Amino acid sequence: MSAETPAADGQFTRRRQQFRDWRGTRPFWAGLFVLLGGFPIMYFPYANLQFGNLTVAMSTTAGAGSLIIGVLLVVLGVSLWFQKHVRTFAGVAAILLALVSLPVSNFGGFVIGFLLSMIGGAMAVSWAPEKPRGEAPGSAVDDPNHLPGTNPATGANGRHSAG
Predict the structure, then answer these.
(1) Where is this region: Disordered (predicted)?
(2) Beta carbons within 8 Å of 110's beta carbon, 6+ residues apart
(3) Cβ contact 37:73 at 8 Å
(4) Is 151 a member of any domain?
(5) Cβ of 60: how many Cβ atoms within 10 Å?
(6) If 0-12 CB within 10 Å is exposed, 13-18 middle and 19+ buried, where does residue 37 land?
(7) For residue 130, which of 27, 56, 63, 96 sits 20 to 30 Å off, Cα-Cα?
(8) CA distances from 94 to 21, 73, 163 (A)
């Protein structure tokens, strides 16, 4: 085997490349942030911390509301992965749920869940699908004055203009 011989792709390399390709076609990181933001919002209202012999119960009267907000954030995060066309709705809903979690759920999961959900929601709203590789920047597709069915090089009616 020489230095010029390409290495054979193993199963791990192929799967990693498939995951990378899949991840690049959707708001993956936005979904991950929203999903991870739901867990502290769900967990902290039901948690009991042990400090030696001292037990600190953080349960609140709004425990059910915290659970609902957390579950909805997890569902929105997963839907961002598998249904990328709902990205704007899911992003706005994640931002609103994160804001509602501040008064309902121990300051939004002690601000951890709040920040993760806000960042993920903002990333989801701002994500845009990649343009197809065949389109060159500055082509007729990007020109707002270009009318369909006309050739921008020859003129509006398709004939060369007589100079």
Answers:
(1) 130-163
(2) 40, 44
(3) yes
(4) no
(5) 15
(6) buried
(7) 96
(8) 25, 6, 58
DSSP E strands, the chain: 48-51, 54-57
Find where tokens 């995951």 sit: 19
Rounded to the nearest 10 degrees, what angle do helices 28-43 and 87-104 cross at?
20
Residue 144 backbone phi and psi in degrees, to 5: -70, -20
Distance CA 137, CA 114 (A): 38
Q: Would residue 106 count as lying in a domain?
A: yes
- Residue that is written with structure tokens 């929105």 in the block: 76
The range of the structural domain enclosing residue 77 comes to 26-126
Count of domains forming the chain: 1
Q: Is residue 161 part of a domain?
A: no
Per-residue pLDDT of the chain (163 residues; tens, 9 = 90+): 556 666 667 889 999 999 999 888 889 999 999 999 999 988 877 777 788 888 777 666 667 888 899 999 999 999 999 998 999 999 999 999 999 988 888 787 788 999 999 999 999 999 988 877 766 565 555 555 655 655 555 555 555 555 5
